[in-house]
Amino acid sequence: MYTLAQLAKNLNRSLVYVSGLQARFELPVFEGAAYSEAYLVFLQSLVNLRTLSIAEETLRDLWHIEKKLMQLLQADTSSPTWFLDSCGVSARSKRRLLLTNYKLGSEIQTRGVQLGLHFTKAKAELFAGHEMGEDALRVLEEYDKLHTRILTEVKTETPTLRDALAWAKKLG
């Protein structure tokens, strides 16, 4: 477990920067050494993507889509950091969401999610989710478009980052 100061040090960022990420991404704030490895991994993903010139607004949009998709797929939301808990899993695959690292169970494609799986106790609702306009396939399509755009931007920026690192080594 980490303190906020330890998170900042591990991310090589200031406390103000990390606190700003917490606020802008609506992350829970804890006292003392209460931040998990998964929390650190999530923040590191944000820092890495920002380093690759992915706009923070784009990342926030993806973040909201991923959380909504997890809710529609009825992920376990019993933890105060339920949307971060999969970030601590070291496995990375095409079956996991980019920021939350949540495993969908099949390769991420808009036709690849088996809907109707329940991972938590059912809540009593007046109307079914699809009757209220919630559609996991629609949200997954939104995710897929944004995810593809981000990966394209990362691939475009990677050579520039390599060049910058090579240049920085020459500086001594």
Could you explain the architecture of this structure?
The protein has 172 residues and is mostly helical. The protein contains five helices and no strands. α1 (4-11) crosses α2 and α4 runs antiparallel to α5. The longest helix has 36 residues, at 136-171. It is globular and about 50 Å long. The model has no long low-confidence stretch (mean pLDDT 83).
Write the layout of secondary structure elements.
Elements: H1 4-11, H2 15-24, H3 37-51, H4 56-72, H5 136-171
Structure summary:
The chain has 172 residues and is an all-alpha fold. It contains 5 helices and no strands. The radius of gyration is 18 Å and the shape is globular.
Unreliable spans are: none
According to DSSP, the number of beta strands is 0
Derived from helix and strand composition plus strand pairing, the structural class reads mainly alpha
**Alpha-carbon distance between the termini?**
35 Å
The coarse overall form would be globular
Give the fraction of residues assigned to helices: 40-55%
Calculate the mean pLDDT score and round it: 83
Q: What is the radius of gyration computed over CA atoms, rounded to a whole number of angstroms?
A: 18 Å
